[in-house]
Amino acid sequence: MDFRALVIILMSAVLVNNYVLRQFLGICPFLGVSKELKNATGMSVAVIFVMLLATAVTWPIQAYLLNPNGMGYLQTIVFILVIAALVQLVEITLKKYIPALYTALGVYLPLITTNCAVLGVTIANINKGYTFIEALVNALGSGLGFMLAMVIFSGVRSHTEASDPPPSFKGLPITLISAAILSLAFFGFNGVIENLFG
Fold this sequence. Notes:
Blueprint: H1 3-16, H2 27-32, H3 37-66, H4 75-97, H5 99-105, H6 108-113, H7 116-127, H8 132-162, H9 172-187, H10 192-197
Helix pairs in contact: 1-8, 3-4, 3-7, 3-8, 4-5, 4-7, 7-8, 8-9
């Protein structure tokens, strides 16, 4: 396995193909949970964990169950069910064995069930033809990219809310404009990773 290829997959998932700022998946938690850094970080850690776990389960299901039996068309339904079941399993396990972490994550775990970025990563891993290890690296990079977007946007939002924008820009309009500008900034990473490590 080529280590350089894994680094390219990881860095591309974080910067170039960022699921929030480039592919516009996971916008709901991005806009809803990014008001405070603590909440943004908590949600991001939970998303990273679930992305890795979902990839570790869905990739073998696709490779060894759906594809060999000609049931690839069930991919989306099966993946949604698997992600929902995994989130519930993680929630129950944390509640029973690590109640402090369960309390700290609070509402973030159930929110991940409806986070389309998690489903997007699992489907992209299959569509791009990644091996199991490459899929896990892509899931990690995608989760780190989600965290990077959340943390940066949390700082941007705290700054814009502390400023005094014109009345017509207060609230959601200034938030959406800030998100658009941040998204444009990430478009600047196009071609950088491949040329840096290629």
